[in-house]
Amino acid sequence: MLDFTLWDILSNLLLAARWTVLLSLIAFVSGGIAGLLLLVARVSPVPPLRVAARLFIEVFQGTPLLMQLFIVFFALPLIGIETSAWTSAAVGLTLFTAAYLAEIWRGCVEAVPKGQWEASASLAMTFPEQMRHVILPQALRIAVPPTVGFSVQVVKGTAVTSIIGFVEVTKAGTMITNATFQPFLVYGLVGLIYFALCYPLSLSAKALERKLNVAR
Amino acid sequence: MAYSFDFSSLLDYTPVLVDGVATTVGLTAVSTVLGVALGIGGAAARTSTVKPLAIVVGAYVELIRNTPFLVQLFFIFFGLPSLGIRLAEWQAAVLAMVINLGAYSTEIIRAGIEATPKGQIEAGASLGMTGPQIFRYVVLGPALGKIWPALTSQIVIVMLGSSVCSQIAAEELSFAANFIQSRNFRPFEAYFLATALYLALAVALRWAFSLIGRRMFAKGVARA
User: Fold this and answer.
1) Could you tell me how many CB contacts below 8 A there are between chain A and chain B?
2) Which of A9, A20, A60, A63 to mutate to test the interface with B (most CBs of B within 10 A)?
3) Domain A6-215 has CATH 3.40.640.10
4) What is the per-residue pLDDT across A64-111, written as a single tens digit (0 to 9) for each?
């Protein structure tokens, strides 16, 4: 039987962690863009848009990420799109991230005093102008800490994509366990890798929040 | 190629789905009770004046909150047997969920505790109450009332997160969906139905908790 040194295991896990990081970045960036559109729809003066955005958010916050991934994985081929674990994972996580970010940001938009809406409306600004020049700049400031905090959930969410066959650090851990029969060590290391990725994000979210509270 | 949906073939598997829903509800119920209890203990320890205790609990909270539930589950189910701790699927699932919810609810409840006005604690002390008595009769109730919506959200997240327990063959709702699609080869329909059931469970859970909250905290729960 082959022997695996600790370094063999760790180096392979770290190589797989690249994909965890890359998928997290893709999901966070594209989810952020989609989330912004969703947010605008959610607070827009057009009722059907508001309802649709609200429904989207409710559904994605009320169902498991695993089910969302499975549905994307099995639904895309039904509408004629060839899919891989990669695309399904990216699409699924993007939708998941968009829903949560839109809801977080809605809270920030609502924290902007109502007088700001009224003042900008009395200057004959249209809704897009109000959002662009008055509301979003103020909401953005308070949105930073919770957004950074949520990025931790995105990184942890990528672990679930291992179930639809995307090879990131959790899946790599399972594969290495099957070869080495050392689940305690391997999953322990996998956990530490996630911790190394997430803890700095958690800390900076906390620091940003403290800074914001001091400024106010 | 047009795909024709066929949800009727799922009817044959109604008992499997009912079992799956029941297991998900059961797992969630048990781990909610134990997890929130752990969270209350953890929050008490974290706000206590005994420094080493506060540090140990703090480390536990950070470790759990910064690693994925799936990895925690795998570590418990596949990793612990090498220490001689062998758990059945459902035991591992419950343990993982309790440990996970315990960490999050420690943080949530701690926030509620720290929002207690100082005067109330002093008032309790001036009535001759001991520390634990003040915690039990003065601090805890209003603290839980304040953070009830946040706690509800976290319990919903844990319930939804329990879907990955199918990976260690705990026979909950997503396991049922997986089982069905491996028999009738209609994965989209099976997962779609399971997703709808999860959504219904999440809505029901929120509703039940707001009802409990209104009953338990007469002065009303902070609004979400």
Assistant:
1) 118
2) A63
3) no
4) 999 999 999 999 888 888 889 999 999 999 999 999 999 999 999 999
